[in-house]
Amino acid sequence: MHILICEFMDEQAVDRLRASHTVVYEPGLVDDAPGLLQKAALADALVVRNRTQVRGALLDALGRCRIVARLGVGLDNIDVAACEARGLVVIPATGANALSVAEYVIATAMLLLRGGYASTASVAAGHWPRAALSQGRELAGKTLGLVGFGHIGQLTARLAKAMGMQVIAHDAFMAADAPVYGQSGVRCVDLDELVVLADVVSLHVPLVDSTRGLFDASRLGRMKSGAVLINTARGGVVDELALAAALKGGALGGAAIDVFETEPLPASPHWQGCPNLVLTPHIAGVTSESNERVSHLIADQLLKALA
Questions:
Q1: 55 in catalytic set
Q2: 3-state helix, strand, coil in the chain (%, to 5)
Q3: Pick the catalytic residue: 263, 270, 292, 296?
Q4: Against a cut of 0.85, is the pTM above it?
C-alpha cells in the first residue's frame, strides 16, 4: 500500500510503516499545495497533523485513499462527514498527547499566577525587583475551571488536584450526572458559574458552531478579577482582540494561548504590549515523548487497517 505523510512524524514510526508499505514522508509537503494534490492521488492512506486541510480539492484528489490518519485528536481540519461519505476511515490519535497538554496547562498556570519568571535580564543587569515581584500567587488552594471534560480535561484535573487545587468543570457534551465527575472528585457546574468562580480557566473543547467565539468580550468580562485564561483547544474559541483588551485593561491576570484563529499566526499587533501573556505555536500537545506516542499509535492503527 502507498502511504503519504505530509507533516512531521517520529522517524522510527515511519520506518515501521516502510517495512511493510511504500511510504512517501515529506513533512514540508503541507506547504506545497500543488505537490500535495499530485501525490495525494497515489495514496492509499494519508497521514496529517493539524495544518493539512482534508476537504475540498485535497479530498477530491484522494481517489484511491482508504484512510486518513490524524497525528493528534482535533478533527476540525478534516471534513469527517465528507470522508465517511466517500468510504474513508478517519483515525485520530486519541489520548496519546493528553499528558503533554495537561502538563502545559499546569506549568503555564503556575508561571502566570506567580508572575516572577521574566526578571532574568533585569536581575542580570544589576537590578533587584524583589518588592515588585513579591506579590505572586500560589497554585495550591486556587480553583481550576475546565471547559470541556474529556480525556485531556480529566487528566488535567488529576494533576491540578495533586497540586492542591479545587477543580470544577463544565462540558456541554456530557451529562451533568456523568459518573466521571464523582470519580474524579470534580464538581460539575454550568459555564456561567465556572467563569465567575475559577482562578484559572482552561479550555478543552472542539471548534464547532456552539463553541466558536465562546469566550468573547462579554464572557471574558465576567471572569474573576485577576483570573488566568489558558487555551490549548482551538483558536476560534476565544476572541483574540477581546482577550488582548482585557489583559491590557487589567481585568485578567494573564493568559497562555497556544492556538490561534489563523495558523501559522501572522504579525498580530493586538498582542503587543499585553502583560503576563504567553504565546506558543500550537505545541501544548507536542513533546518528544508525545510525538513518539502519537506516531506509534497511528503506525499501529495503519498497519492493522491496511493488513
A1: no
A2: 40, 15, 45
A3: 263
A4: yes
